[in-house]
Structures are given as C-alpha cells and as structure tokens.
Design a protein that fits this description.
Rossmann fold; 16 helices; 3 domains; alpha/beta; five-stranded parallel β-sheet
Length: about 500
C-alpha cells in the first residue's frame, strides 16, 4: 500500500485532466434507468454443462420475481472416480421462462422455436438462436463418448470438470462470440490500463479486446457488451491521496455508465445483464456499486473474487492476478522437476490481513522445511525460492486477490491456498483440487503434517497437473488460444450462455 500511495501522490497533477474529460462525457445527459425497466424481460438459466446444481440461491435483483427450476438430479455429472463435483453454482432464473429454451429439460435444448422467428429478421433472436445452438452442441459433447478433437489441446485429466464440454464450449465461443466495446470515454481513464505490476490484467485485457477478432463494431451483432473502464486508472488519476474519499471515483463510474445507458438501447433492454466490466484493483468490487445494476446485474470479471463482499459465482467471473513487473512474462515460467525441489513449504510476504499474522506467528523461523518469511534474507531470490519448493503458500492479505497462485503455477510449485470466501480463477472449467491444496485458517498450526501426509506419488501428480493447466494463466503477446485472455473471455461467454434476453412483446 505504501508504494501505491507514493504513486498516487505523484499523480495528483494528472487529476486536473478530469476537469476536461468528465464534462465531455456528460454533455448528452442521462436516460431514466427505471423508465426503461418495463420494456424488457430478462431471464437467467444457470448453464454449466459440467457443473449442475438444483439448489436455489436468493436473488440479488429485487426488481424481479425469483422462481427456481425443478430438481434435475439426472443432470449432475459424475467424475471418473465415481464422485460428483462440487456445485458452487445455483440454478435460477428471473421473470418468466424463456419461450425458446426449455428450462426444465436443458438436455434437450431445441432451437426450432427460435429459428422460426428469424424470418422476421430480428437481430436479437438471431443471437439467441446461435446461443441455443451452442448450448445444444455443448450438452451433446458432454454426454457423448466421442472425444472432442482440437489440434491445440492435448491435456486431459481430473483438473478439468469435463474436457469434452469445455472444448466444445471453447470452439463454439470461437465460432460465435462477438463483443461490442463501447467507444465512449477518453484515455487515460478509459480504453487503457496498466500492463505491468499486479494490476496488469486490466491493461492487457483492455488492449487485447480493442483489437481482438471477437470485437464487433455493430452492437446488433454482439452477444455481450464491454465497458472499457480501468478501475486502476481511475484510482491513479482521480483518487486524492490519503483522503479516504471515494465519492469522486464513484461519481465518475456512475456518470460513465449512465451516459452509456442514455445513448445506447442495449443497457436498458437487459438492465446491464449482458454487459461486463473487468477489474484487478482491490477497489473494483466497491466501485461497481456506483451505478444501479452494475453490481447486481452485470458480469464483473474480478481478481478480488470474495463471496463475502458480494462476488456472485452465478454471474461474476474470477480472473487471476498476475504480477508482470516489466510488463513481460520473460523468465517467469519454468522450474525443476519434483525430485530436485529441496524445500517443502515456502512463503514470503508482508504481514497484513487476518491470515498472514497467524502463518508467521506459528512458522516463521521455526522449521527448516517450512520456509515462512516476512522478508527474504538479503541476496535470496524470490523466484529461486519458488523453484526450489514443493508447496507454495498462497495466503490472503487485506484482500483475497494475490499473484501468488499464478507465481506458483508458473514455477511448478503446488499452490497451497489459504483464503476464506475465495472463488478460484476459471473454476467453472478447472477443478483446482486436482492441482492445489486448500487449507482452512484454523489448520495453519498443522500445516506441515497436512502436507507431509500427502503421498509422494500424489504430490507428483498434482505438480504435473499444475504444469499442464499453466497455459491457461500465461500472458501472451499477442494472445494465443487457451491462454489467460481467452480463458477470461470463455468464462464471460459461459455467463452469457446462462441468460436469454428478449422483448416482452414476443412472449
């Protein structure tokens, strides 16, 4: 936080830019949010073809009546070991059931009722027909014994909930997904962001999205809409250091989204539910509350994916925090084989938040096998310690977001996650229990025994699986298939598959 404060002090002069930027954004005024509410009905059917649950979850959107789907226990997949995967997601929808897709039998999704409307030339129905077709293809792949082929993907195993469903979903995304990026807003607040530091995901994603093949300039062809806001840039240029005043930041977000809602029809037709924002800054969740519907309805792709702070896995996306000190991934990847790792457990980091003080109190300088440090000794390389270690602690600080999980995967160290209320990145696709260890805060005192009890063969399997899934967390320039940019888009695509937006006059 000291480094960030110093940066904020140095940027106070840049704050003056907003005197010119914000008035330009606000020239057209704002549309009444509530006034458009009754023209459209929005429905959600939670649809993860490899993770099904019939347990209803309370709605966070009080404007709609909540109904729950009937139990579909036959839809719950079974893993190779005979157990069912955890079901962190709930089945729910808002409003009346969609006319085109059966909400009681998602195994037999039909597009015929939607296709019949295409003769009317309705752009939205064309989009929904394509999504219905994708759902049907994914479900068929999930239930089929035939392996889905992909020349760029050879990984398999328990680190994926269902490889067939994932690959078919990914391929359908590549065929169909179109994202409309709103052009309003000026740099450096919008359409830009940091590509270095622990906030690098913001700038990398925004920059890649601006030139991506998934971008469309025609909003009528888009399934989803991106608000190109950089929360890190807003904090950097708007926040007055040490003021503890978030009002100007929230006002800026509110004004921007309000301007979008005023100028474009697409926000109001779904109340923002087919829109998404992305933030890796700790303040992203709080600033998403600035405009009605952004927090409750929109897809929020967040590094700080904390369920106790309102992160909702049924609509929000957890993305990894990746520290790129120089904006590059050079020399961050790779590590020795398991047999050449001499350290059992490693952690080094500042003492803040509720977890790390407990970790340091019990293990700092207590055991040569458990290398827990507040600060590394002079001349000791952090990256070298990661590469020498079998298990690397990924503990919460003030917030649950941390680059340590990705640092562990990059260097071939098995992540040991100690985070309460955290949703791991891409857990809609990845089974983190297959390549990481999760430990409760209360079990920190027994940390060494827990890890020592893991058989060597199982450790080697977890380590190998981590090396295989590492590709999904790599930052490539330009992006490559299945890397972190595409996995982020895929998680957003999955949330869009869960919903149907349509005009009430056609119900």
């Amino acid at each position: 936080m000291d480094d960030e404060t110093e940066k904020l002090r140095s940027s106070e002069s840049s704050f003056k830019l907003l005197v010119f930027i914000v008035p330009l954004i606000l020239l057209s005024g704002f549309v009444g949010f509530v006034g458009s509410r009754n023209n459209w009905v929005f429905n959600v059917n939670l649809y993860y073809p490899w993770i099904w649950s019939s347990v209803p979850s309370p709605s966070q959107v009080s404007s709609f009546s909540l109904q729950t789907l009937p139990n579909d226990t036959d839809l719950i997949p079974v893993l190779a070991n005979g157990t069912s995967p955890p079901a962190p997601l709930s089945v729910q929808f808002f409003g009346a059931p969609p006319s085109a897709i059966s909400v009681t039998n998602m195994k037999n999704v039909s597009t015929s009722s939607v296709i019949s409307k295409l003769r009317r030339g309705d752009a939205l129905e064309r989009i929904e027909a394509g999504l219905a077709s994708a759902r049907a293809a994914i479900m068929k792949a999930k239930e089929s014994n035939e392996v889905v082929q992909d020349s760029d993907f050879i990984s398999n195993g328990p680190m994926y909930w269902n490889v067939n469903a994932f690959l078919r979903s990914y391929q359908e995304m590549e065929k169909q997904l179109k994202v409309f990026v709103y052009e309003e807003g000026e740099q450096p607040i919008f359409h830009n962001g940091p590509c270095g530091s622990i906030y690098a995901m913001e700038g990398n994603f925004i920059n890649n999205m601006e030139v991506s093949k998934f971008r469309t300039r025609n909003p009528n062809k888009a399934q989803i809409f991106f608000l190109p806001i950089s929360i890190t840039s807003i904090v950097h240029f708007v926040y007055e250091s040490d003021s503890h005043d978030w009002a100007p930041l929230k006002r800026l977000v509110n004004d921007y989204v309000g301007f979008i809602a005023d100028k474009h029809q697409h926000w109001n037709r779904s109340l923002g539910t087919d829109h998404f924002m992305l933030s890796c800054h700790d303040w992203g969740p709080e600033l998403s509350k600035s405009y009605p519907g952004l927090f409750e309805n929109s897809i929020r792709a967040l590094c700080n994916a904390n369920k106790s702070e309102g992160f909702n896995p049924t609509k929000d996306v957890s993305i990894p925090e990746i520290n790129l000190p120089n904006g590059k991934i050079d020399r961050l990847l790779g590590g020795p084989s398991p047999s050449k790792r001499s350290i059992l457990i490693f952690f080094a980091g500042g003492v803040h938040g509720p977890v790390r003080p407990i970790l340091l109190e019990h293990w700092e300088n207590k055991d040569p096998d458990v290398q827990i440090h507040r600060y590394l000794p002079k001349g000791v390389s952090y990256q070298d310690m990661l590469r020498k270690s079998k298990y690397c602690i990924c503990a919460s600080g003030y917030e649950v977001a941390s680059p340590r999980m990705v640092e562990a995967l990059y260097t071939g160290c098995v992540p040991v996650i100690i985070k309460d209320h955290y949703v791991a990145p891409f857990s809609d696709v990845l089974n983190w229990k297959a390549f990481s260890i999760e430990i409760q805060t209360k079990d920190i005192t027994n940390l060494k025994n827990i890890l020592m009890d893991i058989p060597q063969k199982e450790y080697i399997r977890m380590q190998n699986r981590g090396v295989q899934v590492r590709r999904h967390f790599v930052v490539n320039v330009p992006p490559k298939r299945f890397d972190v940019f595409h996995m982020t888009l895929h998680s957003i695509w999955l949330r869009r598959l869960n919903m149907r937006v349509h005009n009430t006059t056609e119900l």
